[in-house]
Amino acid sequence: MIEQSISKTRAFIDDTLVQMRKVIVGQEVLLRRLLTALLADGHILLEGVPGLAKTLTLRTLTKVLGTSFKRIQFTPDLLPADLTGTKIYDSKNGKFETVQGPVFANFVLADEINRAPAKVQSALLEAMQEKQVTIGGESIPLPFPFFVMATQNPIETEGTYPLPEAQVDRFMLKLVITYPSKEEEMIILDRMASSEIPAISVVSNPELILEIQKEVREVHLEPKLKGYIADLIQATRNPSAFNLNFKNWIQYGASPRGTLFLALSAKAEAYLKKRDYVLPEDIKELAPDVLRHRIILSYEALAEEIKTEDLISKILQSVAVP
Questions:
Q1: How far is it, in rounded angstroms, from Cα 65 to Cα 63?
Q2: pLDDT for res 171
Q3: How confident is the model at residue 280, as a pLDDT?
Q4: Rg (CA), the chain
Q5: Distance CA 275, CA 6 (A)
Q6: Cα(321)–Cα(136) distance, rounded to whole angstroms?
Q7: Which of 74, 264, 46 is nearest to 159 (CA)?
């Protein structure tokens, strides 16, 4: 990668964060992880209580990046066609016309994805994986870039349809966000209670994002660090090989998709830090978000109230860094 080439496009990172912070108070991890997943061409599953500005954050990001945005409220009566679109008969010309659904946007917010039944969830996850939608036998590509942020509400389980583990695996990162601090909440009061809405500027466009995504893939990853990533994933499947006494707490470890996503997200993190090479710190920083939803705990672990984050922490401490 040529340093002069990436310096031109990297400027958008600082500009994007500056514009985002005009509207969003705190949530620095969320802001950076959104950019990490976007630049690595992945998707995010977000878990947090209502009112934490999840919708506002993604909507603001799309405005700053000059891209299209659609919000889909997932409900129990939602149908796959409500998401992807359908064919409607036009009596004037005697033909069926394709009506595209809200999934045809650069940024899609799937709000409370676990409130819709499995067929609707599968329709979205297929679009995420294939980057296309099939309507009436016609395959239609989705716009590029295509980024999905799905949210889950952790405080209500009645009337929900939990995502199967195999489908959750399609999300590159899973984030858990919490309440703002008192100081941040005071800033939110001052900013949002005002009649003046902070003005933001457009600093990018879809073409530039695609160019940067290509550059992210060229970020250098040493063979030793590739081995380190593989060891971390192996430790989730065979902990005893790394002297980890996890008993029978892990029922299933991370999939090969986790290996790929950890490498790609680490490259994106290095790029965000204005480097064209990955450091072990990048991998360690992204590992919890990549592995959180890929380690399936056993009934024994759940009974003993073992947390996935604690196991990931022990894995990071035990696996030797090259």
A1: 5
A2: 92
A3: 95
A4: 21
A5: 10
A6: 51
A7: 74
Q: What DSSP letter does each residue of 245-293 carry, written as one string? A: --TT-EEE---HHHHHHHHHHHHHHHHHTT-SB--HHHHHHHHHHHHTT
Q: Are residues 32 and 103 in the same domain?
A: yes
Amino acid 25: pLDDT = 80
State both tokens at 265: 């997200």
Residue 201's CB: how many other CB atoms inside 10 A? 11
228 with 188, same domain: the answer is: no
Per-position b or e across 75-85, b if 16+ CB within 10 A of its CB: eeebebebbbb
Residue-number span of the structural domain to which 239 is assigned = 217-318
DSSP symbols for 107-142: EEEEETGGGS-HHHHHHHHHHHHHSEEEETTEEEEP
SS3 71: strand
Examine the domain organization and report whether 140 and 171 are in the same domain. yes
pLDDT at 1: 47
- Nearby residues of 263 by Cβ (< 8 Å), 6 or more positions away: 221, 226, 229
Angle at the Cα of 179 from the Cα atoms of 174 and 56, rounded to 5 degrees: 70
Say whether the peptide bond before residue 180 is cis (omega within 30 degrees of 0): no
Residue 122: count of CB within 10 angstroms of its CB? 15
- C-alpha 60, offset from chain centre: 16
- 171 plus 231 within the same structural domain: no
Contact 250, 297 (CB under 8 A): yes
In the chain, which stretches have pLDDT less than 50? 1-2
**pTM assigned to the model:** 0.87
Q: What is the structure's pLDDT at 2?
A: 45
Task: Tell me the C-alpha distance between 26 and 13, whole Å.
Answer: 17
pLDDT for the residue numbered 137 = 78
Q: What pLDDT is stored for residue 158 in this prediction?
A: 61
